[in-house]
Amino acid sequence: MSKATLRLRPDADGLSRAAELLSDGALVAFPTETVYGLGADARQGEAVAAIYEAKGRPSFNPLIVHLSDLAAVQALVEWNPQADILARAFWPGPLTLVLPLRADHGLSSLVTAGLPTVGLRVPAHPAAQALLARFGGPVAAPSANPSGRISPTTAEHVLAGLDGRIAAVLDDGPCTVGLESTIIGFDGPHAVLLREGGLPPEPIEAALGAPLIQPTDTTITAPGQMSSHYAPRGAVRLDATAARAGEHMLGFGAVKGDLSLSESGDLVEAAANLFGHLHQLDTLGGPIAVAPVPMKGLGRAINDRLRRAAAPRD
Question: Are 39 and 30 within 8 A, CB to CB?
Answer without folding.
Answer: yes
